[in-house]
Amino acid sequence: MADLNASTPTAAPAFAGTAALVAPIAPPILTAPAATAAAAGTTAPAGPRKPPKTADDNEAIVRCMKAWNNAYKKEAADLDDDESDYPAQKAGNEAYLRVTPPLVGYENICQFIACINFAVMTDIINYSDAKHYRANAKLALTAAFRKPKPSADEPRPVGRPPKSVLAAGN
How far apart are CA 112 and CA 55, in angstroms? Predict the structure, then answer.
């Protein structure tokens, strides 16, 4: 029988390029045997675990990237082989920003922020421009949360209350 405590050299994991760095291996899921689980009164999950959300799951980012790709391909088709693709990139960047969600409502604001962050990470817009877009999103988010709620009883009067009402409240 082999000694389990004996020190044996083990091979260090070898990385095959960047694919190993981009797609880490998930830890194994440890489950109890069926008889043990049934005896313990627990049940095993019915299906596989749901994978984490990615940029592909965000419809707004997908819509923005489709607009970028379409504009880029359309503009790049008119370019010669030795020409720079800068005009195609510029057209794609403008198309991307045109289809970002409007800054109206909480969900749209969150989608807008996601699109801007993705655009910065993929060099569609630069960081200094992104700061302005994020500042606009911050203002819209603040305005969305500060929107006055209508009174349930009666409409609120316009303007300041009379001094007699203010004096009676003290």
Answer: 13
